[in-house]
Every structure is written in structure tokens, then in C-alpha cells.
Amino acid sequence: MKLLALDTSTEACSAALYVNGDIRQRFEITPKAHTKLLLPMIESLLAEAELTLSQLDALAFGCGPGSFTGLRIATGVVQGLAFGADLPVMPVSTLAALAQNLLPELAFVAMDARIGEIFWGVYQRNAEGFVELVGKETVLPVEQIEFPQQAAIGIGSGWRVYQNELIARTQNLVTQIESDVLPQSSTIAELGVYGFKRGLAVAAEYAQPVYLRDKVAQTEVERAQVKLNGLNG
Fold first, then answer.
1. What is the mean predicted confidence (pLDDT) over 178-187?
2. Is position 159 within any domain?
3. How far apart are alpha carbons 227 and 221 in whole angstroms?
4. Residue 231's pLDDT band (boundaries 50, 70, 90)?
5. Can you give the CATH number for the domain in which 55 is found?
6. What does pTM read for this prediction?
7. Which of 83, 158, 170, 185 is most deeply packed, by most CB within 10 A?
């Protein structure tokens, strides 16, 4: 199994190559430099492994939630590569990737979504050693989150920004907080291979970002409508 994974959903930019269980990764924390770094990372990984895109079985990417601009970068690159090499794509949740980084029995994952909200997901470890979603991923204020009444690890930037509120809301169920963990393409590669083997990969045109916040999509429609009105005016 050979799979290339990439992620630009946060301030970190990373790419990883999975070859029969061995994973090599490039990872840099570089806000606003993703477009300059991502393709060179991919090229160096393939060159190091003496592989071409056409020799891969699939691609994977961090599909979100996360930075709006970052998700668009990753989606655009992965679609371009997939179309060019005729490869399937495995979208991987960035919240799942955060949980998989630590692989706890149960994780309350919270990423700062700005404007007083968090991206929220609860993940548990399955018998195969991979995290699985409990319920659904959402974007909402801390006081509206839902969670099982079990001890868990708190993971993600939301626990740094809203630590006191989250601890109070989760009724001290959290036994450990890891607020500085970022999604990594090496983990996305692992989850990508796992999903691919379960038949969850999609064609390039269906590899889409997951924003969770409906207003993002609405804003894009509004902008397009403004441009259209301007042309028609």
C-alpha cells in the first residue's frame, strides 16, 4: 500500500508518504506559507522514495474542520494531483487526526473556531487501534457541546482558548489536557490507509473540504451573487 497524505488545516503544513507501513513526513509550522511549502514537500518525499504519483494507490488529506484558506489549499492540491494521476482520495477529519495522535480511550476534541465557537468532536478508540467518532462533529459555543459521561482526554486548541469554560462544562471528566497538538499528515496517512481499506475513498471531484460552519458556504454564495449582480448591473 502506497499513499500520500497532506494537511494544511492549521498553521502547520505537512506531507507524508506511507509505503507498506513505513511513514516519512515533512512538517513545518509556517502560517501563511502553505502554498510555497506543500508541493516541494510532496516532491521531496516522492523523490526520496523513488516513486512517482502514478505508482501510488491513493491520496489522503485533512479535509477539515480548520482554517478556511488552509482547507481550500489542501483540497485544491489533492484534487489536482488526483485528477492528474487518476487516483482515489481519502478525506480525513482533522479532529480525528488530533485524537489519533494520542490514541486515548476517549477524547474530547476541541479546535478554536473563532467568534466564540469551537469545532467539537468526541472520539473513542476501537478494537483495531483507530479512533471512531461518537455522535457527530459540530461547531458551536462551549455551553452547547454534548459528550458522554466518561473520563476523557481534552485535545486541541479549543482547550487552550476556552479551558476554564470547557472544564466546567464537562464537569471535570477530563483527566488530561493536550492543547498544543496539531494535525499531522503522518496520522492522516494512517487514517487514510485505514479508511481506504474499508472502501471509503472517493473520486477526486468528491474530495471536498468540511467547514462545519454553514455561514462559510453562505458567504461564498453571497460573494458570487454580488459579483453576478455587478456584472448584470
1. 97
2. yes
3. 10
4. very low
5. 3.30.420.40
6. 0.90
7. 185
**What number is the average pLDDT over the span 130-137?**
98
Compute the residue count for the chain: 233
Q: Which three cell numbers stand for residue 202?
A: 472517493
* Distance linking the first and last C-alpha atoms of the chain: 54
**What are the two backbone dihedrals, phi and then psi, of residue 162, each rounded to the nearest 5 degrees?**
-120, 35
In a shared domain, residues 7 and 106: no
The alpha carbons of the chain give a radius of gyration, in whole angstroms, of: 18
Question: Residues 20-49: what's their mean pLDDT?
Answer: 96
How would you class 226 by CB atoms within 10 Å of its CB: exposed for 0-12, middle for 13-18, buried for 19 or more? exposed
**For residue 139, what is its C-alpha cell?**
461547531
Q: Are residues 158 and 173 in the same domain?
A: yes
